[in-house]
Design brief:
Layout: H1 8-18, E1 24-31, E2 41-44, E3 56-63, E4 68-69, E5 81-87, E6 91-99, H2 113-134, E7 139-145, H3 159-171, E8 175-176, H4 184-188, E9 196-201, E10 206-214, E11 229-236, E12 242-247
Parallel strand pairs: 1-12, 6-7
Antiparallel strand pairs: 1-3, 2-3, 4-5, 5-6, 7-9, 8-9, 10-11, 11-12
């Protein structure tokens, strides 16, 4: 659901985000002024490929640490954004925020929902692999709205799209840490499931400490958002745990 500064829920969304303790944020269907925390550094996708109000963005990344835009590594600049962090303990961290086509996406008008998803995923996969070639020692985190559930029961997307996504992530060496038994929405708000995922590739030894969803309600609060917020806590051997949140 779109959010703009003139909406009453803008401040409600911002307040809810600030209640979460996370160093890195991926926001989708957002606004460039919606900072989840004071003093965070933000980068944003470009001009949306739909009718939009000033400042609206498909994807934003907010970081506790300074972040450098990597627009040259993003093919679909209307929906995706990428940036680079030089972390004192972890070295280079590359962040890539995304929105993949949904079932009724306008991109499917001249083809099909499956083809639109396939084409967008191939484009983004090429970005992920190119980033890994240029930054071979960096930790890559890809997160956002994948519009596909990744649990045993079907919730959203399709079996064919799920196969595409899982294959594409595997070929890109990315591990979806919000899938299967780690899906906090399927775990805590069944029969719903998560479609906003966090995926990681790293040469460093890491473990998944926890996943959670918010707010603590059976279903999303639609006056706030039609999606849950999702938080992932990762621990690296070379540093203290790094929290990563994806919220819509």
């Amino acid at each position: 659901m779109r959010v703009t500064p003139n909406q009453s829920r803008f401040l409600a969304v911002q307040k809810a985000c600030r209640a979460q303790d996370a160093e890195l944020w991926f926001l989708t269907e957002t606004h460039q002024d919606l900072s989840p925390h004071q003093g965070y550094f933000g980068i944003h996708s470009g001009t949306p490929d739909r009718l939009f109000k000033p400042g609206e963005k498909w994807s934003s990344i907010w970081s506790k640490w300074p972040i450098e835009s990597m627009s040259g590594f993003v093919t679909d600049g209307s929906r995706c954004v990428a940036g680079r962090i030089e972390h004192d303990a972890l070295g280079e961290i590359i962040l890539y925020g995304t929105v993949l086509p949904w079932n009724s996406d306008l991109r499917a008008i001249e083809s099909s929902s499956f083809q639109a998803y396939q084409e967008a995923l191939e484009v983004q996969k090429s970005d992920w692999l190119r980033i890994q070639r240029y930054f071979p020692l960096a930790t890559l985190i890809v997160a956002g709205d994948f519009n596909q559930s990744l649990v045993g029961q079907h919730f959203y997307g399709s079996k064919r799209k799920r196969h595409l996504l899982e294959t594409g992530l595997g070929e890109s060496h990315l591990v979806p840490v919000t899938s299967g038994s780690n899906d906090p929405i399927a775990r805590d708000s069944n029969p719903r499931a998560n479609i906003d995922h966090v995926c990681i590739y790293s040469h460093l030894d890491w473990t998944l400490d926890a996943t959670s969803r918010w707010p603590e309600t059976p279903v999303p609060i639609r006056s706030f958002s039609d999606h849950f917020g999702v938080k992932v806590d990762l621990a690296f051997l070379r540093a203290t745990s790094c929290g990563v949140s994806c919220a819509i």
